[in-house]
Amino acid sequence: MYFDYAATTPPNDEVLKTFDTVNRDFWANPHALHRPGLRAEQLLEQARGQVLALLGAESGFRCIFTSGATESNNMAIRGTAYRFKKRGKHLITSAVEHPSVLTVFQSLESEGFDVTVLPVLGNGTVDPEELKNALRPDTTLVSLMHVNNEVGAINELPILGKVIKEGSDAVFHVDAAQSAGKLPIDLSKLQVDLLTFSAHKFYGLKGSGALLLPEKMVFKPLLYGGGQEFGLRSGTADPARAAAMAKALRLSLKNWEEDFAWVSKLRFQIQETLQKIPEVEINGSLDEGSPYIINCSVAGIKPETILQGLAEKKIYISTVSACSARQTAESFVVKAVTGDTKRAQHSIRISLASITAQDEVDGLCATLPELIETLR
Ligand code: PMP
């Protein structure tokens, strides 16, 4: 029983089929001028158009295919910061961003940029008022996540975008790794300039993602070479991965409402179970936030011990975040959300997917209270 879908999801069969077909039948270099190359290019461009359309970005945006959200975040933040550094060197982010955002800001800070790291509210979201007060005439970039990967908090993008655009000339970058495919995103209605995501979070393949950015925006790439992907990401593009990602996104968004309702029902069942266990506290919000992610702190027991106990029963959850290379230290996200070090040291994450079954949740809800009692 797998409850670690925020770390990754299994690739969907149809996605694998698309990947296989394109690899077999359209394997030519999409940048070559011969007929097989042009056919591969056609598929690549078709996938690009589909991704843009699925995110309301058909007009005024470009889609750059990348190796995933880590690369997209690096490219977006570094690219924008350097691009506008003559205008200003003030950048804004939040305390609960993914390490692929926070560490980029840390490195920019060491290069002389001035970075404001916003605190978050008790539900894990950024306070629009706090953001408004942090904006300055020399702010060139604000980078905030849509859904938090540890506690599931959902930032209100329409409100935050409005605050940024009304109060500054800053570019707004959003890390949507935990929301793309699960929540609708319509860039035509948001004041968001750049959007990051990874395909493997919505039943696509690992090693593929994208950065959406304004058509007119140019900046220095991370990778130099043949100038592919509008000069922003050199290297031979992969039509198979691109087509697989477009398909994964389309399939996920097709049923998003139904999936959201199903996962919400499971989430409430799990929360109810957790709330009945003494000295277990839910981190983040109980009823707002993404239903796909539940985080709680279990006093008195090391998270790794709970993980092991559950694993012995073939139930797999996670501590901190699998994305941070298996560290077992305290969760900086839970610390920022609760202000409580003990809670941050004792947090576990249970994450769901549309494919999570009722009997799996029943199994988890029967096992967890008993295990915690035994371990105590
Ligand atoms: N941002 C967020 C919010 C994430 O959850 C993740 C994946 N854990 C990433 C970025 C990085 O994605 P990837 O590992 O696919 O590059």
Automatic annotation (TrEMBL):
Keyword annotations from UniProtKB, A to Z: Iron, Iron-sulfur, Metal-binding, Pyridoxal phosphate
Q: Does the keyword Nuclease apply?
A: no
- Which Pfam families does the record associate with it? Aminotran_5
Q: Where is the Aminotransferase class V domain?
A: 1-364
Matching SUPFAM superfamilies:
PLP-dependent transferases
Looking up InterPro entries in the UniProt record yields: Aminotrans_V_dom (IPR000192), Aminotrans_V_PyrdxlP_BS (IPR020578), Cysteine_dSase (IPR016454), PyrdxlP-dep_Trfase (IPR015424), PyrdxlP-dep_Trfase_major (IPR015421), PyrdxlP-dep_Trfase_small (IPR015422)
TM spans, by residue? none
The stretch of residues making up the signal peptide is none
Q: Which cofactor does it need?
A: pyridoxal 5'-phosphate
Key word Disulfide bond present: no
Q: Which family does it belong to?
A: Belongs to the class-V pyridoxal-phosphate-dependent aminotransferase family. NifS/IscS subfamily.
Protein name from the UniProt record? Cysteine desulfurase family protein
